[in-house]
Amino acid sequence: ASDRLTVRATWNDFSNHAVWNPQNLVVLSGRSEITAQDYLLHETHIFRPNLLNEFRFTYWRLKSSRGPAPQSPNMADFGVTNIVQSMPKAIQSISVSGFFSIGENPLAAFPRQGFTWADDVSWVHGSHDFRFGFSANWSRAEQVNNYGEDGFYTFTSDNTNLALASFLLGAMRTFTQDWNDVPQDGRDLILGFYAQDSYRVSKRLTINYG
Fold first, then answer.
1. Is the pTM of this model over 0.85?
2. Of 13, 111, 108, 16, which Cα lies nearest the Cα of 62?
3. Which tens digits make up the pLDDT trace of 155-165?
4. Tally of CB atoms within 10 A around 104
């Protein structure tokens, strides 16, 4: 009679399959997957009619990843030399102005997880309504990301008056390549505390402070 317990769990999956056809390069696309989990435990306990406690614990996990299609080529397979290519093989981006753009997702993974632990107390005492509480939030994020390492190739009509002709001749307009130097493992811990009171001095005056 003095307790109320709530438990909740959710699990969601999403996936997008890769496409690779050696006879039709323009259909190339990478895969992606996302798995999301969330769990909650919430307990309310009445010690006395004027004293109430609420406890909450949540845990969540989100794992997202992407990558190239199996047996996918990279630009070195088409004769491009003197550039670094990531593994597994992938084609980041080829853009032929006015005709087509293709590309897929290089290898990447972003697992994240965390929990929240919180407690709140409500105590009515005379003309006072006291509230106390704290929370602890912890999270962790890891990352493997090869985005941009395979290069972005752009072909326009500048050299040949036709972007498609520039592509067939290998006459690029621009080429850019990135190197991702980012934190691989991050952790955060955030602590919070509070105390407040709603003091009813008279029928016409209430003081809120904390």
1. no
2. 111
3. 999 889 999 99
4. 22
For tokens 């306990």, the residue is 45
Banded model confidence at residue 44, pLDDT cuts 50, 70, 90? very high
pLDDT of 210 higher than 90: yes
Q: Is 40 exposed, middle or buried (0-12, 13-18, 19+ CB in 10 A)?
A: middle
Phi and psi, residue 163, nearest 5°: -60, -40
Residue type (1 letter), 63: K
Query: What span, in angstroms and rounded, lies between the C-alpha atoms of 15 and 185?
Result: 25
Catalogue the E-assigned strands of 17-127. Answer: 31-48, 51-67, 93-96, 100-102, 108-125
In this structure, what token pair is assigned to residue 184?
């691989």
Q: How far apart are CA 204 and CA 198, in angstroms?
A: 13
Query: Residue 12: beta bridge partners?
Result: 36
Quote the CA–CA distance of 7 and 158 in Å, as a whole number: 63
As a whole number, mean pLDDT of residues 54-62 equals 97
pLDDT in the model for residue 178 = 83
Half-sphere exposure of 67 (CA within 13 A, CB side): 14
